[in-house]
Amino acid sequence: MSREEMAGLAIVFLVLLTILIEAVAPAQVRMEAPQKFEEKPPTLKIRPSERWMVEVYSEEKSLSELEYKPLLVVMDVAGCSVEVNSLGEDVAYRISIFKTSWSKYHYEVKLLRREDVNVLRLIARGVGLHLELNPSVVRYINMSCKGVVLEVALLDVETLSMEINALGCTMNLTLIYTQSAKNMISLDLAGSALLGRIEVPEGGSVLIKADAFSSLVDVKAEELGTIHLLSGSQVLGEAGGLEIELNCSSSMVKLNIGR
Amino acid sequence: MKFLSRIGGLIIAPKDTMRAIVHERRELIEALAVVLFFSFTQWMAFALALRHLITYLAEWRSILPLAYAWPPRLTSSIVIALGVTVDFLLWILLSVGSYIAARAFEGSGDLEITLLVLGYAYVSKTFAIVPLMFSPLMPLASLVASLVGCLVGLVWFIYVSSLGMSEAHGLSLEKAVFAIVLPPLVVIGVLAILSLVMLPIRIFMRWPI
């Protein structure tokens, strides 16, 4: 084989090798992609250290004290870390509010007793709020959040509708329904990130209405399909059971709906 | 193997190889094969490198909604198809231009030999292709290296095709260089003059620029 032939072979080999390497080798991702952030939203567990978080308020009401009436929760929180968890036993709700030793804070807790329902009203600014609710009495939660790190984990929920209005929040939402009743979850997000998991019983119908503007909405519903939106609207599923309404603006949502 | 030796020879011994190509008067289909092979591989390598660069900068779906809506595979195919078409047309137009210039310099060759010489000179694209091999690891650096390779390749293209033109048309090397460089320069000059002339006319007539 002559020198020229070897050089020609090398050239063709190098050119084809270039294409092969480029096509097969995985690309490098250096900049932190929003999806990666979305998969693991930074959650701030409240009460990280007793030294820094001081309990300023604590309240507990039993089911009998509330006469076993349904409970509605209305929250207006800003600049807080909020945890909402399930609670068993005979306790209807338990509230703990923590302050930090370096920031200004404000809170108001009111229990309004109506004829047929109880309404728990919470207003909080710059605190760590830990709310435990008994899923057997809580029927409706309304949250207005601004700059909040929110973690909701309500398990064994029978009937619960929820409305969250979030601006600049990071949220982790876990809801597990034990009954396929008609419930409504409305999430209105602006500049927020939400990672959610909702479970409904087998055979329960789910309807998802997603409306996104400059957002990244990823909804995966078992047996129904997926929604992937950047801007626009999409509807998935059928009415009659759980209805989820998503309104997102400059937000990231990753929601898994399972059975 | 002879075909491969001509490709290799244009890089390691361009003078002798070009002389052999001209005097053996190879088939025009060989030159076409060289043009299409090097053009296709260059644009494919470029499209893949571009995809690596975009992925490197940010994930497609979140940063570039348009790119997500418009599948990258389709974008790559369009880039490759357009690139190969432009390269093919450039080969024909440059050959015709160089042939006319060579005739003006009293060259004796024909258009077919000019097409053959310029087609084989497309081997110089190798300099632009090979640096893109590193695009999965260093997308930006490899594209910059490929750009430098393009310039090296351009110089090599002018040198190799001038050798061929000199051999094919019986011109001196200086005249052959002019025959290669002149047509594109004339086109660029005419376009520049036209745009300069049209600008005041458009402003005067208030046509949209």
Q: What is the strand and helix layout of this fold?
A:
The complex is a heterodimer of chains A (259) and B (209).
Chain A: H1 3-24, H2 34-39, E1 53-62, E2 71-78, E3 81-86, E4 91-100, E5 106-113, E6 118-125, E7 128-133, E8 138-146, E9 149-157, E10 161-167, E11 170-177, E12 183-190, E13 193-199, E14 206-213, E15 216-221, E16 225-229, E17 232-237, E18 242-249, E19 252-258
Parallel strand pairs in A: 2-6, 2-8, 3-7, 3-9, 8-10, 9-11, 10-12, 11-13, 12-18, 13-19, 14-18, 15-19
Antiparallel strand pairs in A: 1-4, 4-7, 5-6, 14-17, 15-16
Chain B: H1 2-12, H2 14-24, H3 28-57, H4 60-63, H5 65-69, H6 72-104, H7 111-120, H8 126-129, H9 139-169, H10 173-205
Helix pairs in contact in B: 1-2, 2-9, 3-6, 3-7, 3-9, 6-7, 6-10, 7-9, 9-10
What is the radius of gyration of chain A computed over CA atoms, rounded to a whole number of angstroms?
Answer: 25 Å
Span from first to last CA of chain A? 68 Å
What is the approximate shape of chain B? flat
Beta-strand content bin of chain A: over 45%
Q: For the residues shown, what is the average pLDDT of chain A?
A: 86
Number of strands of chain B: 0
Biggest interface found: A-B, 34 and 41 residues
Describe it for me?
- The complex is a heterodimer of chains A (259) and B (209).
- Chain A has helices at 3-24, 34-39; strands at residues 53-62, 71-78, 81-86, 91-100, 106-113, 118-125, 128-133, 138-146, 149-157, 161-167, 170-177, 183-190, 193-199, 206-213, 216-221, 225-229, 232-237, 242-249, 252-258.
- With 259 residues, chain A is mainly beta.
- In chain A, strands 1-4-7-3-9-11-13-19-15-16 form a 10-stranded mixed beta sheet. Chain A has a 9-stranded mixed beta sheet with strand order 5-6-2-8-10-12-18-14-17, with no helix packed on it.
- Chain A starts with a helix and ends with a strand.
- In chain B, helix 1 (2-12) crosses helix 2 (14-24).
- Chain B has one domain (2-206).
- Chain B has helices at 2-12, 14-24, 28-57, 60-63, 65-69, 72-104, 111-120, 126-129, 139-169, 173-205.
- Helix content of chain B is 82%, strand content 0%.
- Chain B is built from 10 helices and no strands.
- With 209 residues, chain B is mainly α.
- The A-B interface holds A 1-12, 14-19, 21-23, 25-31, 33-35, 216, 230-231 and B 1, 3-9, 11-13, 17, 38, 41, 44-45, 48-49, 51-52, 55-59, 61-63, 65, 68-69, 123, 126, 129-130, 132-133, 135-137, 139.
